[in-house]
Specification:
By secondary structure, the protein is mainly alpha-helical. It is 75% helix and 0% strand. It is built from four helices and no strands. The protein has helices at residues 3-26, 33-51, 58-78, 86-100.
Length: 105
């Protein structure tokens, strides 16, 4: 797999982790909150594995951030059952996850 493929794969895992994380934050009292927490952790572990495959430069991180943002907007729009506040916290949560994965500039 090339670096671009790894960026796409990493973006998919980060997007899924963020969608579950935001769902849990917005509706923390829902019956699914614990499931969302577990799914977030699982996707973060998968993202960590992909992250370790490459040495990431600043242009890779910019492309990754843009890809995650676009994917997450589509994913959250699809999840109509989550309150629209999801879009308000999206940017902040993207940055938090990228910092957790040590993928921020």
């Amino acid at each position: 797999m090339g670096k671009r493929d790894n960026i796409k794969e990493l973006a998919v895992f980060i997007t899924q982790a963020l969608a579950h994380r935001i769902g849990r934050i917005i509706d923390e009292n829902a019956l699914h909150a614990e499931k969302y927490r577990k799914e977030t952790l699982n996707f973060m572990k998968l993202a960590e594995q992909v992250k370790m495959k490459e040495n990431w430069n600043s242009s890779d991180l910019i492309l990754l951030r843009e890809t995650v943002k676009n994917n997450l907007e589509r994913e959250l729009a699809r999840r109509t059952y989550i309150d629209n506040r999801k879009f308000d916290i999206m940017g902040e949560e993207i940055e938090k996850v990228l910092r957790e994965l040590e993928l921020s500039d």
